[in-house]
Amino acid sequence: MSWLKKNSSVVWNYFINDVNNSNEAHCSLCKKTYQRSSGTSNLMEHLKRKHMTRLERDNIIQAKEKDQNEIQNSINIPGTSRASQPHDTLSTVPVVTNLTNKINSNETTIATTASEPPLKRQKQLVLSNRFGAPSELQIKAFYEAIILDSRYTIPSRRALGRTIIPNMYTNVRNKVQTLLNDTSYIAITTDIWTSINTDSFKTMTAHFFPKGQSKLKTVVMYTKNLEHSHTGAHLAQIMTSELNSWGILDKVVGIVTDGGSNIKSAVRLMDIQHIPCRPQTKSYSSTSSISQ
Domain of life of the organism in this record (predicted)? Predict the structure, then answer.
């Protein structure tokens, strides 16, 4: 890979030596100047503190290109059986056919194992979709939902919380992961909101075109409780970690947010293009004009 200089520290991919002062170097990402003294530890500390996401994204790209080069080299080795066979790195990835039609619907898509009876799967959908918190399972509407089969045994709260819903989540996540693996460019929208109990939550949503399709798909990546301060650095760390967990950090081309200074700072620290939310901006402009 040509972007990494041989026999030198990785910091020199992001810093330029000052031609007038050999003890200083300029960061090509933020244009700030730092002392380098006799080593690069100070420069590396700056990259980790201010450009952590950029470092991680470049490392991902480097690793992928290294893997592709190794695969290509193995294919080009003469006299091997692999050289004469087509190599498809995605041949083992299952193809999702029905999730793409449901992912934008109002009804939550829940997958269960094919071996389960259809009626049982339908009741599990009722448990997970219509209600939410297990404490609401005793209401009358739930009993009306299972009247089709009086032999059905209502799962315990323990089974629902520890087995049924986690299995549904895992199956859906795997299908969404397959869609994300097969796309090259992803846009992100994210916002922070407060519940009626004044608990703060952060939600991140991904928007993309699956390979070979022209219809935009939208999936919720996560909704998490924000237990710590909402600083830009903390929000950047959360988003970077989540994008890494889905393996799409290097695919994100833009992040749409409101005008909050903390979330704008977070996107800037991630070194990803920030896109202001147009409806929110218009609403704020209208409100400001009326108040004046």
Answer: Eukaryota
Helices 41-50 and 52-76 pack at an angle, to 10 degrees, of 100
Estimate the crossing angle of helix 261-270 against helix 232-246, to 10 degrees: 50
Residue 287 above 90 pLDDT?
no
Nearest of 200, 207, 183, 184 to residue 255 by alpha carbon: 207
- Report yes or no: 186 and 252 within 8 Å, Cβ to Cβ: yes
Question: To the nearest 10°, the Cα dihedral for 129, 135, 138, 144?
Answer: -10
Residue 220 three-state SS: strand
Q: What is the mean pLDDT of residues 274-281?
A: 79
CA-CA distance, 183 to 87, in Å (whole number)?
19
How many residues are listed for the chain in this entry? 292
Which range, 117-121, 147-151, 240-244, is most confident?
Answer: 240-244
Cβ(186)–Cβ(180) below 8 Å: yes
| Total-model pTM | 0.57
Does an H or E element contain 72, and which? helix 52-76
46-60, 129-143, 173-187, 212-226: which has the minimum mean pLDDT?
A: 129-143
Token look-up 């935009």 returns: 216
pLDDT at 91: 38
- Please state, in angstroms and rounded to a whole number, the distance separating the CA atoms of residues 198 and 94: 41
- Which residues lie closer than 8 Å to 118 by C-beta, 6 or more apart? none
pLDDT at 6: 43
Burial class for 223, CB neighbours closer than 10 Å (0-12, 13-18, 19+) = exposed
Cβ proximity of 255 and 270 under 8 Å: yes
- Which among 173, 189, 195 has a CA at the least distance from the CA of 245? 173
Amino acid type, 250? D
Of 262, 266, 216, 260, residue with least CA distance to 243: 266
- The alpha carbon of 113 is separated from its chain's Cα centroid by a whole number of angstroms, namely 25
